Amino acid sequence: MSILKTICLFSFFLLPLSAIVQEDAEDKKTSRWEIVFSPTEAHIENYYDRAKKSRVIHFEGEGVKSIYKFNAMKKNKSKREKYAYWLSWEMKYKKDVVIILILQTTQGESYLIYTAGNHNSYHQIGLGESIVDGEWHTINRNLQEDLNYFDNRKQLLSIETFVIKGDGSLDNLKTEIKKIKKKQSKKKSKPLLHSKKVTSKKNHLPIIKIEGDNPKYLALGETYVEAGVLAYDKEDGKVEVNSLDDINSNEEGVYMVMYMARDSKGDVSLDRRVVIVGDGEKRQQENKSEEQEDEISTKERELDEKEYQMKLWEKELELREQKLKELLKTEKN
């Protein structure tokens, strides 16, 4: 083998298989971000952090009640078993923060939630209270291991959506696919803060009830109208529900409305409504045809009933005629 080929091969194994910088704020823009919801006015700012010596993205709103979504997530798809999907970011927060990842896996959509807590619950991982001390922290997560902690049947394929809640700053959001070493692949996956019990017995997760149709069918150009959603927690009673969606009613496709309910303990529940755009007219026609079929079947049942009653009535007439004939015969005799 030539020296050049050897150098090329050596360089290949040193480089990461697939690393993408999703957001480093160096373009001085915030256009990739969206304020999904905020009860009061919220802002997204791109500014230069002198202490960090870098540009960063800053969110300012109503704490964790304000929801921000990253709209430019580039997908680097992982391959089964041989590779691990990593997500890293830097953050500076003084108050509570929640990060939600909507994922595509071999078993459909799933999600992970990261909080500034010391405990884990269903699909929710605590990163530790120290991440809200007002200092910069680097978070590096093996998403496949985090998924395996709750369900080892799912293989991560890509990140669909990145959502963050809370007032603070974020920088260097990156995704990376790394090759799993043989020694590491045998180890059991452990999250950053492992707890023996996944769900605490002292606190229950909120229960979300979605009203209206699910899935919801829309015709092209038809405006989506929220039918309503409620959430109830055993300890707190009725709790607030936030929602986010990516519906484009002018383009055919399958979309999703994600609902999130959070109780006073910080535990989060998620649920979703599927919205199908482009099949609305077809669905309406199907509904009309079903209604017509129901009308036809109802009419047929009514006709059958009338026919049955007519037959009974005819038999009654026959019986009466026979009785009359018998009476006439007896009178003649």
Largest sheet features: 6 strands, antiparallel
Instruction: Please state the CA-atom Rg, rounded to the nearest Å.
Output: 31 Å
Mean pLDDT across residues: 80
Order of helices and strands: HEEEEEEEEEEHEEHEEEEEEEH
Which spans have pLDDT < 50 for at least 5 consecutive residues?
Answer: 1-16, 184-200
Helix/strand/pairing category: alpha+beta
Top-tier CATH class of the largest domain: Mainly Beta
CATH topology annotation of the largest domain: Jelly Rolls
Choose one word for the global shape. Answer: elongated
Structure commentary:
There is one protein chain. The model is unreliable at 1-16 and 184-200 (pLDDT under 50). Strand 15 (229-233) and strand 16 (237-238) form a beta hairpin. Strands 1, 3, 4, 6, 10 and 12 form a six-stranded antiparallel sheet that branches. The chain is α+β, with helices and mostly antiparallel strands. The protein is built from four helices and 19 strands. Helix content is 23%, strand content 38%. The chain has two domains: 16-198, Jelly Rolls, CATH 2.60.120; 202-278, Immunoglobulin-like. The N and C termini lie far apart (129 Å).
Would you spell out the secondary-structure blueprint of this structure?
Layout lengths: L2 H12 L3 E6 L9 E5 L5 E7 L4 E7 L6 E4 L12 E11 L4 E8 L2 E8 L8 E3 L9 E7 H8 L5 E10 L2 E12 L2 H4 L21 E4 L5 E3 L10 E5 L3 E2 L2 E5 L7 E10 L5 E10 L2 H53 L1
Summarize the structure.
Helices cover 23% and strands 38% of the residues.
